[in-house]
Amino acid sequence: MKQIIVVLAFLIGAFGFSQDSKKAEALLNEVYNKVNTYENISIDFKYVLENTSENIKQETRGDVAMQGEKYLLNILGVTRLFDGKNLYTISPEDEEVTISSDNSEDENTITPSKMMSFYKDGYTYAMDIIQDVNGRKIQFVKLNPIDTNSEIKDVFLGIDAKTKHIYRLIEIGKNGTKTTLTVNSFKTNEPISKTLFTFDKTKYKDYYINKLD
Q1: Which of 45, 54, 124, 153 has the fewest Cβ atoms within 10 angstroms?
Q2: From CA 116, how far away is CA 114, in angstroms rounded?
């Protein structure tokens, strides 16, 4: 399950693009540096997957808690727990737990822990439009993959101009698929259990354990 990204458009060239790119980079770095000051982050979000040509529209809600590289993600009825070493994908419907090693080396996988920093490698970026969302000024940054063979066409990242928190992520694929993640709540430094990012096998005694190499 690829983790979601970014928001809306830009067309500037030559010197103008250079200046705009620096502004975009400065804003993204400001967001990244602020996020790194938090001990932990908890996000509740809405996830929408659309492909009009295929008549597909899927909406769901999810939540994720992050602390450093560790995370606990709930979406589409599946829980994904990364303890810093292993990734546990827990499916109650299938009564199955799949255990795999860290897949962060896969450049095509945007994990929750990389959601705030994925832009640092493999993208060019520029400032985009500003939207007024319920009285909040949302500044969008457009990102374009440097790799021309990438399945991603555009990525848009909407940032709250006041809080410097991510509000919306939009990813547009070359196949016409549009993925949108909208943050409903963004909480930081919440009291969390010391075992939140620890897999407890005793809770899944009746589950099939599928351990991948």
Answers
A1: 54
A2: 5
d(Cα 116, Cα 35) in Å, to the nearest integer?
8
- The residue among 35 and 59 whose pLDDT is bigger is 59
Domains and CATH numbers, the chain: 14-211 (2.50.20.10)
Residue 75's alpha-carbon distances to 96, 171, 174, 180, 188, in angstroms, are 16, 17, 24, 14, 20
Q: What is the pLDDT of residue 117?
A: 66
Give the C-alpha separation, 5 to 14, whole Å. 27
User: Could you tell me the pTM of the whole model?
Assistant: 0.78
Cα–Cα distance measured from residue 81 to residue 59, given in angstroms and rounded to the nearest whole number: 22
Distance CA 157, CA 118 (A): 11
User: Which amino acid is residue 12, in one-letter code?
Assistant: I
Token output for 35: 């996020």
End-to-end CA distance of the chain, in Å?
Answer: 19
**Number of C-beta neighbours around residue 2 at 10 A:** 13
Q: What is the pLDDT of residues 48-67, one digit of tens each?
A: 999 888 898 999 999 999 88
Measuring CA to CA, how many Å separate 165 from each of 50, 115, 119, 171? 25, 12, 15, 18
